C-alpha cells in the first residue's frame, strides 16, 4: 500500500464510475477491487487552465517542497474584553477559632456569575482583623476583574460602619486596615458598603469557616472546590428510560463528514492528514442518493444511514414495539440491518438497550452459578455448635397426632437429636434445647437456626441470654447456610420412609432411625457419630443374636479387665476426634475446590441497584407469566461473606440480610 495519497485528475467517465458507483460488475468490478488498496482520490478536471498548470509542473518539477503557511500575522491584533458594564457585588466574611483563621469572599458579576475566594491566614488575628482582611482581598479581586462599580456587603456592623466613616477606629490593630481601604476606595468609580445579616451572607461565611478549619502543608495541590446539588438520596435512583444511542454533541449526525466529503469534497476543519485519509477510505463504502446516504455492503445491498434519533426509534420499535420479540442485542442488530438500516455503533447500542430493558431484566433466566466462593464452617470441639431445623408438616399424621420433627445436629461429631411434636411451638423448642442439648451435652457456644418465628422469639432469646449461647440465623430462603442440619433432615426422612409400614407409625420408628444414623459412618468425618461421642462402637442387635468377635472377647473378660480396656479406649478418644477433625477439613477442601470451579464472582457495593429472585413459594396472580425477579432494590450494606442488606426505593431496609446469589445487578 502506498504511504501517500494519489490525486487522479481525469475526465474519463469509466474511471469516475470505478471510484463512485455503488455496485459494479464484470471487469470494472475487478478493477475496483484491485484499486481499493491504494489511497486514490478522483478529481474531475474543471478547466483547461488546470491542465496547463499540471503540464507545467510535470515539465519543471521543484525539488524544494514547502507547505503553505497558514498563520496570519494580524490574527491577534483585535481582542474583545469582557463586558463589565453594570454593578458588581461583593460579599465578605472572616472566621477565627482555635484551629486557625480564614477569610471568604464572593464576587458576583452583573450577569450573576459567582467567583468564590477563600484564603487561609497564617498569622494570629482577631475576628475584626479577619473581617478587614476579607474585605481587602475582595476589593483587590474586584480591581483585578475590572469591576469599578461595586456594592460591598458584610455581616460585621463594626467594619461597615468604620469603612463608611460613621464610626471611628480606636483599636490600634484595625487602624492600618482602615487606612489601606481608604486608599483602595478612590480606585473605584462607584463603591458602597452595606451591612447585611449573616443569613444573607452564608456563602462567604462558609468559605471563611472552611479556610479556617483546614490545615494546608506547603506543596499541597488543592483544586477548585465544586459544589453540586442533589434532590434525592444517593441510594434512590430515578429509573427512567434512557437514550441508548449517544446523542450528537454538535447536533450533527455521525455521517455528516462523510456525506459532506462525497457531496462537496470538503474535509472537516482542523482535520489532520491521517483523518482526511480515513474519511476518503470511509467514503468509498458509502453512496449518496439525493440527500440520503447509503452504506454499501459486501453483497451490493444498500443500507440507509440514520442519525441518533432515528436509530433510537428503530431500536425501541424493533425490540419492544408492536411486533417486538425482546430479543438479545446481536440478534436485534442483525434484525435492524436486515430491515435496511445502518449506523456505526448499532451492535453496541442494541446490546446496551437490551441490557437496560426493564422487562428483559425482570424475566431473564435465573443465574445458577454461585456469585461467591464457598465459605466453610467448622466446629472446634464436640457439642460446641448445633444446627436446628424442623421437618414438616408430615402427611399423613402419625397415629398420636404428631406431624412435625424437631432435629438438631452437632457440627463436630454429626450427632443427631430429634423429637416429634403436634405443633412446634416456642415452648416446645426451648424445652427441647434444655432437655436434649444442654442437660445432656453441656452448654453449646453457638446455635444456628433459620428465620422461622418458632425458632426466633422472646423465649428463645431469654434462654440464649441465660446460658450465654450465641444464636445465629441463616439467610432467608437459603438452606445451604445451615447445610448440616438440612442433610440430617434428608437422611432421617429417607430412613423413616424405608422403615415405616402403615406410614402412621413413623413416630414409633424415629428412635431406631436415629440409632441407625448415629451408628453409620459419616463421609464428612470418616467415622460414626457414636464412636466420636463414646469412644467405641455401639453394640447392634444382630451382634447379640450372632455374637461377633468383639462380643465373644468381652464376655470372657473379668470386670476389672473390661474396665481397664474401656479406660484405654477412652484415652484414645481424643486421637479419634483429632483424626476426624483432619478428615473433615480435607473433606471440606475437596468440596470447596469443586464448588469454586462453578463460581462466577459477582460483587455488590452500597448504592447498587439490584433485582431480587422472586420467591416461588408465594402465590402470584400472574401465574405462568410471573417474572423471575422483583425489584429494583438498593444495596444498603454489603458484607465480605456474600450477605447483603437491601432497601426499597423509598429507603426502608429489609429486616434480615439475604445472600448475593439471590440478586442480580439492575442496569439503568
Automatic annotation (TrEMBL):
One of its GO terms (molecular function) is nucleic acid binding. Residues 84-213 form the RNase H type-1 domain. GO terms for biological process: DNA integration. It comes from the Eukaryota. Residues 378-537 form the Integrase catalytic domain. Pfam families: Integrase_H2C2 (PF17921), rve (PF00665), RVT_3 (PF13456). This is Uncharacterized protein. It comes from Fagus sylvatica.
Amino acid at each position: 500500500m502506498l504511504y501517500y495519497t494519489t490525486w487522479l485528475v481525469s475526465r474519463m467517465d469509466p474511471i469516475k464510475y470505478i471510484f463512485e458507483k455503488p455496485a459494479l460488475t464484470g471487469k470494472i468490478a475487478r478493477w475496483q477491487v484491485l484499486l481499493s488498496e491504494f489511497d486514490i482520490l478522483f478529481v474531475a478536471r474543471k478547466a483547461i487552465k488546470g491542465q496547463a498548470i499540471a503540464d507545467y509542473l510535470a515539465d519543471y518539477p521543484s525539488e524544494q517542497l514547502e507547505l503553505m503557511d497558514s498563520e496570519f500575522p494580524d490574527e491577534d491584533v483585535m481582542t474583545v474584553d469582557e463586558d463589565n458594564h453594570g454593578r458588581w457585588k461583593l460579599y465578605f466574611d472572616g472566621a477565627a477559632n482555635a484551629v486557625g483563621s480564614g477569610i471568604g469572599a464572593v464576587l458576583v458579576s452583573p450577569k450573576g456569575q459567582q467567583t468564590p475566594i477563600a484564603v487561609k491566614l497564617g498569622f494570629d488575628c482577631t475576628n475584626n482583623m479577619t473581617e478587614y482582611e476579607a474585605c481587602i482581598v475582595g476589593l483587590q479581586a474586584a480591581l483585578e476583574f475590572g469591576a469599578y462599580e461595586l456594592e460591598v456587603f458584610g455581616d460585621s456592623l463594626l467594619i461597615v460602619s468604620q469603612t463608611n466613616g460613621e464610626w471611628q477606629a480606636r483599636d490600634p490593630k484595625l487602624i492600618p486596615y482602615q487606612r489601606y481601604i481608604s486608599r483602595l476606595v478612590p480606585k473605584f468609580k462607584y463603591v458602597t458598603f452595606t451591612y447585611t445579616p449573616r443569613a444573607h451572607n452564608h456563602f462567604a461565611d462558609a468559605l471563611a469557616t472552611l479556610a479556617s478549619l483546614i490545615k494546608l502543608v506547603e506543596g499541597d495541590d488543592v483544586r477548585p472546590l465544586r459544589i453540586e446539588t442533589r434532590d434525592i438520596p444517593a441510594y434512590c435512583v430515578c429509573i427512567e428510560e434512557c437514550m441508548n444511542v449517544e446523542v450528537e454533541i454538535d447536533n450533527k449526525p455521525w455521517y455528516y463528514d462523510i456525506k459532506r466529503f462525497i457531496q462537496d469534497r470538503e474535509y472537516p476543519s482542523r482535520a489532520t492528514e491521517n483523518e482526511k485519509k480515513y474519511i476518503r477510505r470511509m467514503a468509498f463504502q458509502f453512496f449518496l442518493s439525493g440527500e440520503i446516504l447509503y452504506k454499501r455492503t459486501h453483497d451490493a445491498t444498500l443500507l440507509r444511514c440514520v442519525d441518533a434519533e432515528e436509530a433510537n426509534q428503530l431500536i425501541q420499535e424493533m425490540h419492544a414495539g408492536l411486533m417486538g420479540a425482546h430479543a438479545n442485542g446481536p440478534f436485534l442488530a442483525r434484525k435492524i440491518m436486515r430491515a435496511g438500516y445502518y449506523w456505526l455503533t448499532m451492535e453496541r447500542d442494541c446490546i446496551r438497550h437490551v441490557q437496560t430493558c426493564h422487562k428483559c431484566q425482570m424475566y431473564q433466566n435465573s443465574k445458577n452459578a454461585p456469585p461467591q466462593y464457598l465459605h466453610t464452617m467448622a466446629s472446634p470441639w464436640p457439642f460446641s455448635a448445633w444446627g436446628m431445623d424442623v421437618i414438616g408438616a408430615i402427611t399423613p399424621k402419625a397415629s398420636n397426632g404428631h406431624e412435625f420433627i424437631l432435629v438438631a445436629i452437632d457440627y463436630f461429631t454429626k450427632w443427631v437429636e430429634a423429637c416429634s411434636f403436634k405443633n412446634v411451638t416456642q415452648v416446645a423448642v426451648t424445652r427441647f434445647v434444655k432437655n436434649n442439648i444442654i442437660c445432656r451435652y453441656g452448654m453449646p457456644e453457638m446455635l444456628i437456626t433459620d428465620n422461622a418465628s418458632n425458632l426466633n422469639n422472646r423465649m428463645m432469646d431469654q434462654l440464649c441470654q441465660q446460658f450465654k449461647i450465641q444464636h445465629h440465623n441463616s439467610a432467608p430462603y437459603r438452606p445451604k447456610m445451615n447445610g448440616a442440619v438440612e442433610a440430617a433432615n434428608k437422611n432421617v426422612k429417607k430412613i423413616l420412609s424405608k422403615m415405616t409400614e402403615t406410614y402412621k407409625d413413623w413416630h414409633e420408628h424415629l428412635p431406631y432411625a436415629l440409632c441407625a444414623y448415629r451408628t453409620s459412618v459419616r463421609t464428612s468425618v470418616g467415622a460414626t457419630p457414636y464412636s466420636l461421642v463414646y469412644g467405641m462402637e455401639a453394640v447392634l442387635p444382630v451382634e447379640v443374636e450372632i455374637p461377633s468377635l468383639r462380643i465373644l472377647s468381652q464376655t470372657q473378660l473379668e470386670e476389672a479387665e473390661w474396665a481397664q480396656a474401656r479406660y484405654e479406649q477412652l484415652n484414645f478418644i481424643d486421637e479419634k476426634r483429632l483424626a476426624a477433625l483432619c478428615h473433615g477439613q480435607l473433606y471440606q477442601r475437596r468440596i470447596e475446590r469443586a464448588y469454586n470451579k462453578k463460581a462466577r464472582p459477582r460483587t455488590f457495593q452500597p448504592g447498587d441497584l439490584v433485582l431480587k429472585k422472586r420467591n416461588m413459594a408465594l402465590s402470584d396472580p400472574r401465574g405462568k407469566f410471573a417474572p423471575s425477579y422483583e425489584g429494583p432494590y438498593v444495596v444498603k450494606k454489603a458484607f465480605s461473606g456474600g450477605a447483603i442488606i437491601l432497601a426499597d426505593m423509598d429507603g426502608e431496609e429489609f429486616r434480615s440480610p439475604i445472600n448475593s446469589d439471590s440478586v442480580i445487578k439492575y442496569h439503568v
